[in-house]
Amino acid sequence: MHSMRTGPWRILPFLLLLVSLAACAGEQGRAGASADYRVVPLTDGLSHPWALAFLPDGDILISERPGRLRIFRDGRLLPEPVPGLPPITATGQGGLLDLALHPGFEDNRWLYFTHAASVGGGVTTRLARARLEDDRLSDVEILFTAEPASRGGRHFGGRIVFDRDGYVFLSVGDRGDRPRAQLLDDHAGSIIRLHDDGRVPADNPFAGDDGARPEIYAYGVRNPQGMALHPEAGALWEHEHGPRGGDEINIIEPGLNYGWPVITHGIDYSGAVVGEGIREKEGMEQPLHHWTPSIAPSGMAFYQGDAFPDWDGDLLVGALAHRHLARITLDDDNTVVSEVRLLEAQNRRIRDVHVRDGLVYVLTDHDPGELLRIEPPGQP
Which member of 48, 102, 115, 155 is catalytic? Predict the structure, then answer.
């Protein structure tokens, strides 16, 4: 692995900056002043980074899918991974996935993370937490294991969000076995809701139902790789991969069925119909927005800040297949008004996106992968 400060990589920031500035000029011509930004590469040398999380002191934690946790500090990527992770199964799309700080992190030092784990002859999605102190993890606790485990390495989901009441939400993909997303006795294809210590909230919608997994908060989802809280309403927003078309944005409500695979706006990769071959059905939710053809969304954040005042309240969504960052403007009724594609000239798979002090940070899913910052052209 390389730091951007050593060897031949010294010239890479300058070259990428020239490319990004040229790209911005081209995008301004299409999208007006809303595309007025520059892209600053902060580091490369990451191996398929999956998520980032900001520590209170400004350090950035970065997960690498092969099973390493890295620290970006004082403008450089520390060479040694953070020790103390539990065993992680890096297979297919699985490995070390999302990161989230406990709302009381400054006092309790709890870091939450999802990962693929080998269980009973299969592989599944797990939620764990550990204390992060002195650049080490300790006191690892497994809080949730999606059951049953599966063979194969697809559709782990894995995004983590804390809501304003301190509940932790986790997305679990359908593991490539579509009918499982409609089964309430199966965690696959669902959104999970837990107390911060892994206990099941008594008011979860299926907590009292025989034959249902009490952790399930909503179901009928395919492979959710983005979740975020709306900054004003506090609602949980989710996006997920469709098959060939039909990527979706949903607002998640307790007990609701989001339809996969019975209904979808996409088709099978072969061109065949999926499920019942319909887009709507009573008792199943319609997406707020969908993409056809698929962009393969990953990572999601609402923009708040002064650096880009025209972006305030917009939704930012990374795209893996079409290799861009979507900036989606919504009206007061959550209807999509416009969508602008940023970072197209970089031609990078965007895996995660976060907003910090009005600046936008993204991870590119490559080997080597990069940490990039989007800022106004006049940023000092």
Answer: 155
Provide the token pair at 174. Answer: 């359908």
pLDDT tens string 114-149: 999 999 999 999 999 999 999 999 999 999 999 999
86 upstream amide cis, omega within 30 of 0:
no
Residue 145 bridge partners (DSSP): 126
Per-residue pLDDT band for 380 (boundaries 50, 70, 90) equals: confident
Q: What angle do CA 23, 25, 27 make, to 5 degrees?
A: 70
What's the mean pLDDT in 309-322? 97
Which residues on neighbouring strands pair with residue 71, listed in sequence order?
61
What pLDDT, on the 0 to 100 scale, is given for residue 23? Answer: 40
Handedness of CA 77, 327, 351, 347 (dihedral sign): negative
Question: Could you give the CA distance from residue 74 to residue 41 in angstroms, rounded to a whole number?
Answer: 14
Task: Provide the pLDDT confidence category of residue 100 given band limits of 50, 70 and 90.
Answer: very high
Tell me 257's DSSP state. B
Tell me which residue of 179, 188, 177, 190 sits closest to 261, measured CA to CA. 179
Distance of alpha carbon 343 from the chain centroid: 18
Active-site residue flag, 155: yes
Please, where are the H alpha helices in 135-272?
Answer: none
